[in-house]
């Protein structure tokens, strides 16, 4: 038993150097990628702010329409549009929901 514990301790000590090297390597490789991500995130923020300022459309509205438009399966997309329309009509009787028609047409 004592011999087994001694062997485990030796293995851990032997692996310490390799583990430290792996930690340092990962850190070196992640740093430039994280910098790129921050640059991309900043560019995306600027694009969104410009879009909102230019159009007056909120990003929530844009993102909702974009999520629906990005659905590749036609039946699934139409189903989502129909569900959204049904919910909208139930919650806002008498109002018109024309932008969904535009999303459906653009996605086809």
Describe this structure in words.
The protein has 108 residues and is mostly helical. The protein folds into 2 domains: 1-56; 57-108, no CATH class. It is 86% helix and 0% strand. Helix 2 crosses helix 4. The chain starts with a helix and ends with a helix. The mean pLDDT is 85.
Q: List segments where confidence is low: pLDDT < 50 over at least 5 consecutive residues.
A: none
The amount of helix comes to over 70%
Secondary-structure content class: mainly alpha
Query: What spatial form do the alpha-carbon principal axes imply?
Result: elongated
Head-to-tail CA distance between termini: 71 Å
CA radius of gyration: 27 Å
Continuous helix count: 4
Overall number of structural domains? 2
Q: How many strands appear in the DSSP assignment?
A: 0
Percent of sequence in beta strands: under 5%
Mean pLDDT: 85
Order of helices and strands: HHHH
Profile the largest sheet. none
């Amino acid at each position: 038993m004592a011999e087994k514990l001694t062997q485990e301790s030796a293995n851990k000590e032997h692996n310490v150097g390799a583990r430290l090297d792996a930690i340092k390597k990962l850190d070196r490789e992640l740093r430039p990628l994280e910098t790129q991500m921050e640059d991309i995130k900043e560019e995306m923020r600027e694009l969104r702010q410009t879009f909102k300022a230019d159009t007056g459309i909120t990003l929530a509205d844009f993102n909702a329409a974009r999520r629906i438009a990005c659905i590749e399966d036609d039946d699934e997309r139409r189903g989502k549009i129909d569900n959204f329309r049904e919910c909208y009509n139930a919650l806002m009787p008498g109002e018109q929901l024309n932008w969904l028609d535009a999303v459906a047409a653009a996605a086809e």
